[in-house]
Amino acid sequence: MYRRVVLKISGEALKGQGQYGIDPKTVKKIAQEVKSVHEAGIEVAVVVGAGNLWRGITGEELGMDRAQADYMGMLGTIMNGLALQDSLEAIGIPTRVMTALQIAAVAEPYIRRRTLRHFEKGRVVVLAGGTGSPYFSTDTTAALRAAELGADVILMAKNGVDGVYDKDPNKYEDAVLLSQVSHQEVLEKNLQIMDSTAASLCKDNHIEIRVFDMNQPGNILKAAKGEGVGTVVKNGVNL
């Protein structure tokens, strides 16, 4: 069982069956899953995306300045973080939202030592606002915070994707789900577990990643316990 985990949840996972926005039932379901991990005695930091509300690259395609569009995305992650905090506290889990963007009326500024103190106090920490800088994804945020906070693993909770395959399962019926894969192979084969900046950061800092389908009930807890769900990415794996 891992001691401290960074759980990466995409913004798209929060919209449920809708086209966009925040689906309250879906957020409550995720909160219950996070609660089960917390109650198992595992320290949890959650990094949330904003794809359900806004994507910086979409703004760029519309002719917006990329940095401006990325800042809008960071604000979207804060909205998602506040929604998750509300659902967690409604079921009795003390939670703090910390953000790399200064927005003191609703969230604490991200400070590494303060985050560690929240863990000591038994709180779930929701890390919003990305890295606070444009051109970096929330995948990179998860990798950076995992390194800073000494997390044992990044739990990449995918929306309907149950792990890493040797080839595209949507194209090949004989695609095989891999139990383990190396960081190097993720980069060389562009397996798209996360963006290349985040993947390189994980490789260089020996950060383990577990990729799994979050839509299966109980999978987040199983992943946090190190049970056999999804695919483990780590250095030193020879396939």
Would you give an account of this structure?
- The chain has 239 residues and is α/β, with parallel strands linked by helices.
- The protein has a single domain, classed as Carbamate kinase (3-Layer(aba) Sandwich).
- The chain has helices at residues 24-39, 56-61, 66-90, 112-120, 138-149, 183-188, 196-204, 219-224, and strands at 4-9, 43-48, 95-99, 108-109, 124-128, 153-158, 164-165, 177-178, 180-181, 208-213, 231-233.
- A nine-stranded mixed sheet has the order 4-3-5-2-1-6-10-11-9, sandwiched between helices. A two-stranded antiparallel sheet has the order 7-8.
- Strand 1 (4-9), helix 1 and strand 2 (43-48) form a beta-alpha-beta unit.
- Helix 1 (24-39) packs across helix 3 (66-90) and helix 5 (138-149) runs parallel beside helix 7.
- The longest helix has 25 residues, at 66-90.
What structural class do helix, strand and pairing data support?
alpha/beta
Distance between the termini: 24 Å
CATH topology: Carbamate kinase
What's the order of the H and E elements?
EHEHHEEHEHEEEEHHEHE
Number of domains: 1
* Strand runs, count: 11
How can the largest sheet be summarized?
9 strands, mixed
List the strand order in the largest sheet.
Answer: 4-3-5-2-1-6-10-11-9
Gyration radius, rounded: 17 Å
Q: Count the DSSP helices.
A: 8
Rough shape? globular
| CATH class category | Alpha Beta
- Mean pLDDT over all positions: 92
Query: Percent helix among the residues?
Result: 25-40%
- Name the CATH superfamily classification: Acetylglutamate kinase-like
Uncertain regions: pLDDT < 50 for 5+ in a row?
none
Give the CATH architecture: 3-Layer(aba) Sandwich
Strand content: 15-25%
